Structure formats: C-alpha cells, structure tokens
C-alpha cells in the first residue's frame, strides 16, 4: 500500500506532533511550524528515528493568511510531487486579552491564523482530494468555541467559525470520500499551555480541580482521535465536532 501524505500545520509541537507520531507508520509527513527551528529539528529527528520508512519534511514560516497558505502548499507539492491526502490544522496561538481597550489588529491577526489560514489550506488541497475521491481534514478547535473564557473573544470567534466552516464543507464534499471533522480539546499540557498550567498550581482547587477526570490532558489523549479520523475506517464520520476535555465542559459538579 502506498503511504499517504499528511500535512500537519503545527506538526512540530504539542498536539500536532503527537498526531504526527501516530500517523508516521503509514504516512509521509509535511510539518509546518512558525519559527522555533530547534523544536522542529528535534521533532524531525524523533519522527525519522521512530519510522525510518517515512519521508518527513518541515516547513518554516508564520502562516498569516491566504498567500502564506498558498506558498506552503506549493512548497509541499514541490517537495513530495503531490498534494496531501490528509490535512491536520493544529496551528495557532492564544493571546488572551479583554476585548474592550485592546488593539483590534491583534484580534484580526488571531482570527487569520486560526480561521482564515485553515480555510485557505482546505481550499488549496480539496480539489486534488476531490479528484482522488479520498481526503481527510481534521481541524483543531477548542472548548472555548462554546464555553466563554474572559480574554478569549477572538480565539472563541475563530474556533466557532472553524466549526461552522467544517460542517458546511463536510456536507459539500461528503459524496467524494472526503471527510472534514473538528476536534475540540479542553486543557492539554503543551508548550502553548505550560505557563498557564504552572499558574493554576497555586490556586486552591489546584490544576485539575474543575476537570471531572481529575487531570490535565496529554497531547496523546487528543492524537489518538485525530489519527482515527484520518483513517480509512473513519469514512462514515464527517462534520462532527468531538470534544476531548476530560469532562470539563459537562458543567460544574459543585454547584
Ligand atoms: N493545548 C491546549 O490546551 C489546547 C486546547 C484547546 C485547543 N487547542 C488547539 O490545538 C492546536 C494545537 O495547540 P498546541 O497546544 O499543540 O500548541 P503548541 O504546542 O504551541 O504548538 C503550536 C504549533 O503551531 C506552530 N504555529 C503557531 N502559530 C503558527 C503560525 N501562525 N503559522 C505556522 N505555525 C504556527 C508553532 O510553531 P513554533 O513551534 O515555531 O512556534 C507550533 O509548532 C491549536 O489550534 C490550539 O488552539 C489547544
């Protein structure tokens, strides 16, 4: 069986890297990251050592909008000679800030990084998937799309937009063997959240006080689901938003 090509934005860190580890046995990997070359180098070495058969390439550059997405897909196609059959969008940062009094450009930039780049990449790869009659797209949302957290107005807007986008695109291409799904994590320990989690340790309820399973998640808790959604076996799941949050969004058990 030929190896499928998976493009993972954010694939050199956190959830994206954990997903890349699980995809590596039967996928070639194109990993996009922003600027942390040391981290990307370490990720590449780890993935190549685990899976000598996999072609693994990393692509640097902050994705801010359509033109950056276009340049990335062109580079990936040049490098691998084909477009990706699998796209995992796990890119992005949070810049928590109360909306009133904040700089609007920062909100606009965040929505571009999370939502517009995801839409642009889907637009750029879906035609090939359509011709091939196979494609898998998994977009990383967050429970913040539906459960408000102070300071996350633009992050919530971008992630909620991403969910609506994914459902609609899923409906448009379902008849061609292409599935589009969303994974919405709760609190997962990655470089993105390390400082935040360290800050929680000093609170009376501790780090995981509001998480019913009693612990913060690990990237691997999310990666297994991503891997399954990218597989042939997941052909009948599309347009779904799947929460992976240890029960955090079920409600407050003590009220
Ligand atoms: N961790 C959580 O608790 C959590 C919860 C809910 C949702 N999520 C979502 O899950 C996804 C992955 O999060 P994570 O925690 O795994 O993050 P992470 O460990 O910080 O990894 C993010 C990756 O994305 C890259 N990146 C960031 N902005 C980029 C940009 N504009 N263009 C290109 N690459 C960019 C980073 O590159 P560099 O390494 O070069 O900086 C890094 O490789 C995100 O969409 C996040 O919103 C995470």
Mind explaining what this structure looks like?
- The protein has 255 residues and is of the alpha/beta class.
- The protein has one domain: NAD(P)-binding Rossmann-like Domain (Rossmann fold).
- It has seven helices and seven strands; from the N terminus they run E-H-E-H-E-H-E-H-E-H-E-H-H-E.
- It has helices spanning 14-23, 37-50, 66-80, 104-132, 153-173, 194-200, 219-229; strands spanning 4-9, 27-33, 56-60, 86-89, 135-140, 178-185, 241-244.
- The chain has a seven-stranded parallel β-sheet with strand order 3-2-1-4-5-6-7, sandwiched between helices.
- Strand 4 (86-89), helix 4 (104-132) and strand 5 (135-140) form a beta-alpha-beta unit.
- The radius of gyration is 18 Å and the shape is globular.
- The mean pLDDT is 95.
Summarize the helices and strands and which ones pair or pack.
Layout: E1 4-9, H1 14-23, E2 27-33, H2 37-50, E3 56-60, H3 66-80, E4 86-89, H4 104-132, E5 135-140, H5 153-173, E6 178-185, H6 194-200, H7 219-229, E7 241-244
Parallel strand pairs: 1-2, 1-4, 2-3, 4-5, 5-6, 6-7
Helix pairs in contact: 1-7, 3-4, 4-5
The chain binds NADP nicotinamide-adenine-dinucleotide phosphate (NAP).
Short description:
The protein is of the alpha/beta class and 255 residues long. The protein has helices at 14-23, 37-50, 66-80, 104-132, 153-173, 194-200, 219-229, and strands at residues 4-9, 27-33, 56-60, 86-89, 135-140, 178-185, 241-244.
């Amino acid at each position: 069986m030929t190896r499928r090509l998976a493009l993972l934005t954010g694939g050199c860190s956190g959830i994206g890297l954990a997903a890349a580890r699980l995809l590596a046995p039967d996928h070639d990997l194109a990993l996009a990251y922003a600027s942390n070359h040391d981290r990307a180098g370490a990720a590449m070495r780890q993935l190549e050592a685990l899976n000598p058969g996999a072609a693994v390439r990393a692509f640097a550059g902050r994705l801010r909008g359509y033109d950056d997405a276009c340049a990335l897909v062109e580079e990936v196609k040049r490098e691998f000679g084909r477009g990706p059959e699998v796209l995992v969008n796990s890119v992005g940062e949070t810049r928590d800030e109360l909306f009133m009094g904040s700089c609007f450009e920062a909100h606009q930039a965040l929505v571009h990084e999370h939502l517009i780049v995801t839409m642009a990449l889907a637009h750029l790869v879906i035609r090939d998937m359509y011709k091939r009659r196979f494609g898998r797209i998994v977009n990383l949302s967050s429970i913040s799309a539906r459960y408000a957290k102070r300071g996350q107005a633009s992050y919530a807007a971008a992630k909620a937009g991403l969910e609506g986008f994914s459902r609609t695109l899923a409906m448009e291409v379902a008849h061609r063997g292409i599935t589009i799904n969303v994974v919405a994590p709760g609190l997962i320990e990655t470089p993105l959240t390390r400082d935040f989690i360290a800050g929680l340790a000093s609170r009376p309820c501790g780090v995981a006080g509001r998480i019913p399973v009693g612990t913060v998640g690990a990237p691997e808790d999310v990666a297994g689901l991503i891997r399954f959604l990218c597989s042939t076996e997941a052909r009948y799941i599309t347009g779904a938003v799947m929460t992976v949050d240890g029960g955090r969004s079920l409600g407050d058990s003590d009220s």
